[in-house]
Amino acid sequence: MSFYLNFLLISTVRRCTARSRLRSAFSLFALISVFCALLGCSDSATESNGQSEVQRPKVALIMKSLANEFFVAMADGARQHHAEHSSQYDLIVNGIKDESDLTQQVTLVEQMMAIGVDVIVIAPADSKALVPVLKRAVNAGIVVVNIDNQLDQSVLQQANLSVPFVGPDNRAGAKKVGDYLAKQLQPGSEVAIIAGIATAFNGQQRQAGFEDSMQQTGMKVVSVQNGDWQQAKASTITSALVNEYPNLAAVLCANDSMALGAAAVLKQAGKSEQIKLVGFDNIAAAKELLANDRLVATAEQYGGQLAVFGIDFALEILAGGQPKDKKTPVDLITKAATP
After folding, report:
1. pLDDT at 117
2. pLDDT the model gives residue 14
3. 3 state DSSP class of 144
4. CA distance 259 to 255
5. What residues of the chain score a pLDDT lower than 50?
6. For residue 206, which of 194, 216, 222 has the smallest C-alpha distance?
7. In a designed cystine with 259, which of 7, 220, 279, 288 is the match (CB 3.0 to 4.6 A)?
8. Which of 172, 191, 190, 306 is nearest to 314 (CA)?
9. Which candidate, 121, 289, 29, 219, places its Cα nearest to that of 211?
């Protein structure tokens, strides 16, 4: 280009008078400016295209209560995965105040839609109530993956919606825990179940797994109550159980947070040895109870990896993969045996 401009300049100077030389010089300057502007525009377009090529998908992780150690571990696992794969996606982590705050979780989904995320990985607080807002998200072109607590299949069908589930078989996991507990009891022993939220599918499945085990091993289930995943509520329920059933031999809690509440009551009542206790989730505090023989067993569903499983699968779908359910591991945890 410089050769062409020099040729233009020499030709103009030779043909023009002194007066016209100045006018031609201005014309040539304008011509050079146009060339430079064109080159500048070309560079900008290339840079802009380059930026769009490296734009990372935005992934929103929406969990249940961040007051629950299980979901704190889930968030930490997701953040660690993102730190190791930050060039592949951007991560936004959200959670609600407590397990029953459905309105806030719906609001979080709406907020993530408003800021234009590409992916929502959600552990719904309720298996039914979140379906309408998630349908809006899917209709908006967002990839939605369900983790931890499975959405209600009948409600999904009514909404003509398909959302892949990535998570464990909660019923099978609870049955493993119940079967291990039964080996420590006599047939016909009185047991009580403290379940999760009544409308949460994982809570229903864990309750069913406990009931399967107790029925098959000949135990007598004297009480089933919903502790709503809350430690304080489980404490209240356990206190009433201890007073109402003097021959109670075991309490089966659908998560470890509720087991912590039950354990505190049993210790205060001096019944930690008489009444055996099991949980589900294998949070750090439960490991301490196991070590001190105040918890017989729990279940490990690898909360620190569960969100990662969901994120990886969502990115796979975003890249053209087929959405389908994926089972993740769940293992029995005892004082003597860990996976």
Report:
1. 98
2. 39
3. strand
4. 6
5. 1-52
6. 194
7. 279
8. 306
9. 219
Phi, psi (rounded to 5 degrees) for 282: 60, 50
Rounded distance between C-alpha atoms, residue 158 and residue 58, angstroms? 29
Going 233 to 237 to 240 to 246, the CA torsion angle's sign is negative
In the numeric block, which tokens belong to residue 248?
């109670």
**What is the rounded CA–CA span in Å between residue 254 and residue 266?**
17
Residue 32 CA to residue 8 CA, distance in Å, equals 10
Roughly what angle, to the nearest 10 degrees, separates helices 2-15 and 18-53?
160
For the segment 103-129, what is each residue's pLDDT rounded down to a tens digit?
Answer: 999 999 999 999 999 999 999 999 999
Task: Calculate the alpha carbon distances from 166 to 309, 313, 333 in Å.
Answer: 7, 8, 21
CB 227 within 8 A of CB 254: yes
**What are the backbone angles phi and psi of residue 65, rounded to the nearest 5°?**
-70, 125
pTM across the whole model: 0.80
Closest Cα to residue 276, out of 255, 298, 295, 256? 295
**Hey, what amino acid is at 159?**
A
CA distance 182 to 332: 14
- 217: nearest Cα among 177, 249, 179, 172: 179
Residue with tokens 């930050």: 86
Q: Strand pairing partners for 80?
A: none
Closest among 212, 167, 208 to 74, alpha carbons compared: 167
Closest CA to 303 of 127, 67, 69, 99: 69
**Given the structure tokens 């709503």, which residue do they identify?**
228
Give tens-digit pLDDT for 178-196.
999 999 999 999 999 999 9
Cα(333)–Cα(177) distance, integer angstroms: 8
